[in-house]
Amino acid sequence: MRNMLTRRNVFDDLFDMSMFHDFDSRLMRTDVKEVDNNYVLEMDLPGFDKKDIEISLEKGYLNVSATHSTANEEKEDDGRYIIRERSYGSYSRSFYVGEGVSDDQIKASYTNGTLSITVPKNRNEVIENKKVIQIENL
Amino acid sequence: MYYTTRNSLNSLLNEAFGYETTNMMRSDIKKEDGNYVVEIEMPGVKKEEISLSLEKGYLNVAVKQAKKQEGVEYVLNERIKGEYSRNYYLGDGFVEEDIRASLSDGILRLVFPQVKKAEKKVISID
């Protein structure tokens, strides 16, 4: 966990990740790597249907939410489970990608229970938005 | 069918990441149509990276994945890669052919019969 926290801090500099305060670190584990001029997010989301995953972009935040379909929830109630360790329900996680990124620049695919999202790096916008505070000569 | 704690082949990996082994290969086991169904979470694992073996009533499910890609800069690295395995106790009398395995959307699904009737041993009283 120490390594993870360190990495998160490094990541925060440019990407600024935020998550819900009760976020379970066992869920939606994510790798983010830099590939050319993009960030590639790879998120563990085992056992979902593509249609149960929603990716949205709002005010510079990329939000990924996933909900297990009702079919699964019904099965939960039949009491034939001997061991249940897997989590069911809804989860979401947000990543700050910058307000200069538009939704048509983001590509996503889901294979082998991994969601991959490619987001262009937004360095230009970061620089443009940087507010320089002038020091006045008094 | 009984159920056992998992063995991690790579306890160093878990230690390095600070994860409890219970965070890996989370499994559901249920009874369905006279079979046991085991569903194991394995996101990002390919079919060829999984090996299944049966020994002395234990089914061992092992994953062997390449670690981080060389030359790639990770800005966040939470996903677990490497080698790990878990044992499931099925009981004696099972053979490889009794177990059906399939992998889809990051879930390994194993199906095997609840009871091997032919294997039931009757102990006679002298």
Textual characterization of the structure:
The complex is a heterodimer of chains A (138) and B (126). Chain A has 138 residues and is α+β, with helices and mostly antiparallel strands. Chain A has one domain: Immunoglobulin-like, CATH 2.60.40.790. Chain A has helices at 2-14, 70-76, 123-129; strands at 17-18, 30-35, 38-44, 53-58, 61-67, 81-84, 90-96, 107-111, 114-120. In chain A, the strands form two sheets. A four-stranded antiparallel sheet of chain A has the order 1-7-5-4. In chain A, strands 2-3-9-8 form a four-stranded antiparallel sheet, with no helix packed on it. With 126 residues, chain B is mainly beta. Chain B has a single domain (11-119), classed as Sandwich (Immunoglobulin-like), CATH 2.60.40.790. Chain B is 6% helix and 40% strand. Chain B is built from one helix and eight strands. In chain B, the strands form two sheets. Chain B has a four-stranded antiparallel sheet, with no helix packed on it. At the A-B interface, helix 1, strand 2, strand 3 and strand 6 of A face strand 1, strand 2 and strand 5 of B. Strand 6 (81-84) of chain A pairs antiparallel with strand 1 (27-32) of chain B, so a sheet runs across the interface.
